[in-house]
Predict the 3D structure of the following.
Amino acid sequence: MKAVIFTGKERVAVEDVDEPRLEDASSAIVEVERTSICGSDLHFYWDEFNISQGVRPGHEFIGTVAEVGSEVESLCVGDRVMAMGLYGCGHCSGCADDRPTACTRGWVNFGTTLAVPGGQAQLVRAPHADHVLRRLPTWISDDDAVLMTDVLPTGAFAARNAGIEPGSTVVVIGLGPIGLSSVANAFAYQPARVIAFDGLASRRGRAAVLGAEVFDPGEAGVVEQVLSLTAGVGADSVIEAVGRPETVVAAVSAARVGGTVSVIGVLTEAFPVHPLTLGTRNITLRVGTTDVPLMWKRLLPLLEQGQVRLADVFTHRLPLTDAARGYEIFANRADDVFKVVFDAQS
């Protein structure tokens, strides 16, 4: 079968590799149909952690169950499924509560180590299949199903952590796929307004379609604009979806006294926010990793009812064999890209 492999810094290959096998009775093999590039995949593409060589990426994928182990109870061959990118053992108290980040045996992410190949491939083994995979509802589109593996749940997690109340003011900094999802999920809490910032006009346009008031952070700075828009008070809730120290600082400064800041951007550097800054202004700061299945419980009804919706997110649809070009476009923000999805079987 064919699979995407990182062969060095900013080097991607599609190679023929051995097909996965059932290694235990609780696993399943999935024939991947659609799989997309996540912003977090770029940290491995750029080899920021010096561990990318040979890694087979991909945690956002949907497909059809091709084989199941004898102990798998909730799935059958032929079921169409979506996967949670981050998973636990499937048996401990944390996993039973749909919180794999609380797994007592530690959690794992598809496509981030040599030991756990990801879903940017024609076939993938899903360990603990009853825990990791969910049968797709008949009403869901393929695009929404792919987004439900990461983008939509992560935005839901960011919005929940922001403590949004009806009638409140929400700020979202960064309007990539996760930031846009955060905007969509924020509106489900019925705030009075959502103010959104991004330096790219095309991304601001996507948030405006959802109903956000959009601004360029380069014009006057995020903090200055938020204070101007809120009569000097600041926002009740701020979501940071960039993952940079300077935007975390801006998020804290843009929050009102007693406000909440939710950081969902992937941070690889420390950010200079002094505890006294938080304490003297009674700021709640939340940084976390998404428990996808917990967010599925909230999102599936909202998605079915049309209360949360992202449209036309995938600007580039490519065959899996064109993965190197897909990564190059996505990493360089070329061709007005927003998100790339691969057809795994072509």
Summary: Residues 2 and 139 are 30 Å apart (CA to CA).
